[in-house]
């Protein structure tokens, strides 16, 4: 793959997950933030492989592709600026806070003739990719009833997550991963019902919890349950799924598939114990490799901007249902889902897909 | 103590009969007069009693003439009412298979008949007697979990029509998976929340798995909102493959403000593989839930122990399932009165 000039916008948690992947891929990375956090992130790479742009214009000037890793409420503005400059854009999920905003972004990408890629990293988790591939090959027959759960710690490290006007709340920020996956497996979603409980406003005090439950009805008649938890500080990152049809069932619980386990190590201080090790490639690396390949003449990524749009549509409908107490018709087309997922990735789950 | 089993229609009847047959101090008599109307291939009545090694009489009247202290009703769901009313008429305590009935009207009549006759009406919800549930209940009631936010539960099984065809008869069963499997977890939460009531139900269902094979719903998701603020979603689907080594299971996760806990009512198993039969092996070693339930019904609960669900509780969990059907028809949440 030719060396790609990537403009990384943002220096928070997700930028720190993407940056090692970009460096592994041999990209020339320029980072831009409105504060000095970008400079600090670049300074952590003393080999000078990460440059800092002083302005957005400077970043766009030196980049062929842009990676939007800013808080969700800024995605639209940042991505539109990059798209209008004719740059390919990888944008963290959710693409934006409303379907209208996403449609505007897609329109701009189409006008500019560039790729708008929603970074739905769960598509690149190997257990999810393996399951999706098998379902597409008919392993369970036609999916009839699906369940997904996702538990992590409450995202208290950055204040905007807890504010639903900035992040969309747990249904939009976290559960969009599973909404996207449910739609990938069982097709477009026509009706959503959801409830949210627990702490749902900024600031988020240490030890707070939020949980939500959503039921999706697909155009095919299939039904999906998605349960999301922003949990206590000691919550282990954990995801589960179960996909059932007439011809079989596929299930996964990340708590049951740890291939390397530390059974005891005494009362060691934080950071001094045996580290948790990734046993397979980072899903972010797999994801960004596919994006980089696509913008340098390779095949289209397995996840499209329209997938990102439909995921936002479901998530926003879920949030509306939770707010109003009624079920919400999404207005999505009753079309059949997109094609089979791409080649399987091989990497280890990590606490990243919040 | 003299205990009768009325009808072998339900798949659980054999389990109750074996349990009572082997229970010290219990005399057992069974009756399954509707056996003649059973579909071909289903072993019922005298023949089934002989297989089980238990005594059988040809009429319910003969069983009541024997003077039972208690009876267990294991007929088809819509035929519970007649047998419970018969037990009430004879002044006999009655433990009724779940769901209590297929309509609120029948359920209310059964509760009223037993109240007026002064007999106890229990509803067979054995998962209440799972030690995993007891531990969950203690975690919640001691304040260990804090306020309950959400519950995600799953009670899955295979399509039960293989052993007894009436399970997929809309009239006799009162529905499909949603009627059969919503009520267990609805009952656990009714018991757990002690006084808090379900106030709203949203449900969606389908029959994608058995389209053209059966007429009832075979997959369902039921969301229940409680007046203590908690919300639960129950997967009640018959989505467990027919040839899977287990019948299914019942699991739930409860998210509280101070702790998240989970229970797996049938998780206590040794697993392995049988090379000669080329099939998986699962050896359950946990508590016999039916045994605990039946003993509690006959002899009472231990101090502070879980009680058998009474008729009112059975009626409440039935209302949740029926509201689920109404919600699925309307496509929106429906209130519970």
List the helices and strands and how they pair.
The complex is a heterodimer of chains A (354) and B (337).
Chain A: E1 5-9, H1 13-24, E2 28-32, H2 37-43, E3 50-52, H3 56-61, E4 65-68, H4 75-84, E5 88-92, H5 99-112, E6 116-119, H6 126-136, E7 143-153, H7 164-167, H8 169-173, H9 176-186, E8 189-198, E9 210-218, E10 223-231, E11 238-245, E12 248-253, H10 283-295, H11 305-324, E13 328-329
Parallel strand pairs in A: 1-2, 1-4, 2-3, 4-5, 5-6, 7-10
Antiparallel strand pairs in A: 7-11, 8-9, 8-13, 9-10, 11-12
Chain B: E1 2-6, H1 13-21, E2 27-31, H2 45-52, E3 56-57, H3 60-65, E4 70-73, H4 80-89, E5 93-97, H5 104-117, E6 121-124, H6 131-141, E7 148-157, H7 170-173, H8 177-192, E8 198-206, E9 219-226, E10 231-235, E11 248-256, E12 260-264, E13 269-274, E14 279-284, H9 289-299, E15 309-310, H10 311-330, E16 334-335
Parallel strand pairs in B: 1-2, 1-4, 2-3, 4-5, 5-6, 7-10
Antiparallel strand pairs in B: 6-15, 7-11, 8-9, 8-16, 9-10, 11-12, 13-14
H-E string of chain B: EHEHEHEHEHEHEHHEEEEEEEHEHE
Averaged pLDDT of chain A: 92
Spans of chain B of at least 5 consecutive residues whose pLDDT stays below 50 are none
Query: Largest inter-chain interface?
Result: A-B, 40 and 40 residues
Total strand count of chain B, please?
Answer: 16
What attributes does this structure have?
heterodimer, A: 354 residues, alpha/beta, Rossmann fold, Dihydrodipicolinate Reductase, domain 2, 6-stranded parallel β-sheet, globular, disordered C terminus, B: 337 residues, 2 domains, 7-stranded mixed β-sheet, 32% helix, Gfo/Idh/MocA_Oxidoreductases (chain A), Dehydrogenase (chain A), Gfo/Idh/MocA-like_OxRdtase_N (chain A)
